[in-house]
Design brief:
mainly alpha; flat
Length: 301
């Protein structure tokens, strides 16, 4: 990629074994349960708390999918219902988070936009945020009532269906390499043409690759993909947030009345897109001394 991307490949991974995987999985499930109880009890959840819940639900889905794939064949269908419910919960948390992001963007643009525009949109966003928060509360109550992913239930299930180190290693390697391949394909497509759809796809698969590596590495903090890809994910996220906000404004019944807001969003997205195109530009190949053989190419871990 461009100037900001250093050469080289991600560090090789040392993958966790069954005991460490179990411990991480139970800890994550416990964290999600605590956050869902906060939502189910109707406590006011801050934008940060909603963001963390959304992130941890994604992480739990990755871990649950891996648990099912690495489990003995007789148990591989376990938790299918819970996995589907996690998707619905993540959607409920995601649309609530989207309203928080839109409110933050609107607040940041206050000096550039007419106050009448921002006040009117803020009122609509706050109303929608409240409604989506209520839907999240209903979903959380329903999910907790099922009790399928309580740490105690998970612990008993994993004791009854122990993972072998070899099955976990094979499933982990496939999960990581699958995520890596999807990222490489999405990156090539975005480099050819940086459409909104392709940049959104790149954001999703890069996030999945990073999270999968971190969930399965012995040293999660030391096994991230490097500062250039972290920076790329941040910029892709900022671009996505603006696009989401633009879609929301255009969906309003009287969206023409907010043409100044839409113009501001369009200009902001164009600036972000130019930054991304520079980041995504393929790096120029390094020159090597004449006669020096090429080193063999290998896949990152």
């Amino acid at each position: 990629m461009g100037e900001g991307t250093p050469p080289g490949r991600p560090p090789a991974l040392r993958l966790v074994g069954p005991p460490a995987f179990h411990q991480r999985f139970l800890s994550l499930a416990g964290s999600v349960e605590v956050r869902l109880r906060e939502a189910a009890e109707g406590r006011e959840m801050s934008p940060r708390a909603i963001h963390d819940l959304h992130r941890d639900l994604r992480r739990l889905r990755i871990a649950l999918r891996l648990l099912r794939r690495a489990s003995p064949v007789s148990a591989s269908s376990g938790f299918e219902r819970e996995e589907k419910e996690l998707v619905e919960l993540a959607h409920a948390a995601g649309v609530t988070r989207d309203r928080d992001v839109a409110l933050r963007l609107l607040g940041g643009a206050r000096g550039e936009l007419d106050r009448g525009d921002t006040d009117a949109l803020r009122a609509v966003l706050e109303h929608e945020r409240s409604n989506f928060g209520k839907r999240l509360r209903v979903r959380a109550k329903h999910f907790l009532a099922q009790g399928g992913l309580e740490p105690r239930v998970l612990s008993e299930w994993m004791e009854a269906h122990p993972l072998s180190a070899s099955r976990l290693r094979v499933a982990s390697t496939r999960e990581i390499r699958g995520a890596q391949t999807e990222f490489q394909q999405a990156l090539r497509q975005a480099q050819r043409r940086s459409t909104v759809r392709r940049l959104h796809r790149l954001r999703v698969v890069l996030r999945q690759w990073r999270q999968t590596r971190r969930e399965l590495a012995v040293d999660p903090e030391g096994m991230d993909l490097g500062p250039s890809l972290v920076k790329l994910q941040t910029r892709l996220g900022n671009y996505h947030d603006l696009g989401m906000f633009d879609e929301w404004v255009r969906s309003l019944r009287h969206s023409r009345e907010h043409r100044h807001v839409r113009h501001w969003v369009k200009e902001s997205m164009e600036r972000r897109r130019r930054e991304l195109e520079r980041d995504l530009a393929p790096s120029k190949p390094r020159s090597r001394p004449r006669g020096k053989p090429r080193s063999p190419r290998t896949l990152p871990g």
